Each structure stands twice: as C-alpha cells, then as structure tokens.
C-alpha cells in the first residue's frame, strides 16, 4: 500500500496584507509555459495575515512519480484548500529529478515578493535560494522546472 503523501511540508507566515496567493509556474528552459493559481485567500481590507500553509504530494504508484500537489491554508481561523495536477506539465524524470524545499530565507515577509516553498528541476543543478531559482541562469540550465511559491499582496 502506498503512503497518502510521498512528501509533505508546513510553512508558517505572519505579516499584514490583503491577499495570499499560491502559484505553480512551469518552465521549459527559461520560457515560462504555465502560471497557475492554485489557491487564493482574499480579505476585505488589508490587515493581519497569519497562519500556516500545508502541502503534500501524492504518488501515482508506490515510489513512483508524483501526481498531485494538495495545499491547505489555515489563515486567520479559516481553512482553504486547493490542488494542482502535475499531469499538466508532464515532467520527464527519466534522468532524475532534483528538488528543494523551504527555499525562502527566514525573516519578514515582504509584500509582492515570491517565496518559493518547493522547486523541482530535471536539470543537473538546483539552488536553495529563491532569488536563484527565478534567475534566467538557473532556468536555462534546466530542461524543465516547476516552482511552487506564495505571494502576499
């Protein structure tokens, strides 16, 4: 029997803003092919935004390729859920798949900045800092890249 999740993570945030949005971007080399909104939490007015983002990857078969990314945001005493299917991007993992998690640096969350929670690359190199993950240099080195991140506005 396969486990429910082949990987899971938890990310805490505490800042002020009006919206928290979670995206998955897909690149082939440095060309962005997809920019998908996975989940969006919008308040009426700007104010405190605090909570936790949970994510989990499901697998198509035991120890096989992952299939879906499930996301839950607990924010200001409410719960929101969303999911993303990796079938949309058709990652070629024959030569392996590199990934990183918690790529964002500790510290205050800045409005409008992208904070990478996880990244997957079919290339030979991956970075552990979100500034590098969005760089053209890194994206050009990877045949396929998927970036899972949040933005607070």
Question: Overview of this structure, please?
Answer:
- The structure is a single chain.
- Helices cover 7% and strands 59% of the residues.
- It has helices at 130-133, 136-141, and strands at 7-28, 31-59, 66-75, 78-85, 98-101, 114-121, 144-152.
- The mean pLDDT is 80.
How confident is the prediction overall: mean pLDDT? 80
Number of DSSP strand runs: 7
Strand order of the largest sheet: 4-3-2-1-7-6-5
β content, as a range? Answer: over 45%
Note the main sheet.
7 strands, antiparallel
Low-confidence stretches at least 5 residues in length (pLDDT < 50)? Answer: none
From the alpha-carbon coordinates, what is the Rg to the nearest angstrom? 15 Å
Structural class: mainly beta
How much helicity do the residues have?
under 10%
Distance, first to last CA: 42 Å
Q: H/E series, N to C? A: EEEEEEHHE
Question: What is the number of helical segments per DSSP (H or I, 4+ residues)?
Answer: 2
Q: What oligomeric state do the depicted chains represent? A: single chain
Q: What spatial form do the alpha-carbon principal axes imply?
A: globular
Keywords:
7% helix; 153 residues; mainly beta; single chain
Topology:
Blueprint: E1 7-28, E2 31-59, E3 66-75, E4 78-85, E5 98-101, E6 114-121, H1 130-133, H2 136-141, E7 144-152
Antiparallel strand pairs: 1-2, 1-7, 2-3, 3-4, 5-6, 6-7
């Amino acid at each position: 029997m396969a486990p429910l999740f082949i990987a899971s993570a938890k990310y805490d945030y505490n800042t002020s803003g009006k919206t928290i949005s979670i995206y998955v971007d897909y690149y082939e080399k440095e060309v962005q092919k997809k920019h998908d909104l996975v989940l969006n939490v919008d308040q009426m007015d700007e104010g405190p935004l605090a909570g936790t983002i949970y994510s989990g990857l499901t697998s198509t078969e035991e120890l096989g390729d992952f299939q879906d990314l499930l996301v839950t945001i607990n924010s200001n005493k409410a719960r929101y859920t969303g999911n993303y299917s990796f079938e949309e991007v058709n990652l070629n993992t024959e030569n392996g798949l590199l990934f990183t998690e918690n790529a964002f640096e500790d510290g205050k969350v800045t409005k409008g900045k992208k904070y990478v929670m996880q990244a997957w690359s079919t290339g030979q190199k991956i970075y552990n800092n979100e500034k590098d993950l969005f760089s053209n240099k890194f994206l050009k080195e990877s045949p396929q890249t998927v970036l899972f991140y949040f933005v607070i506005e």
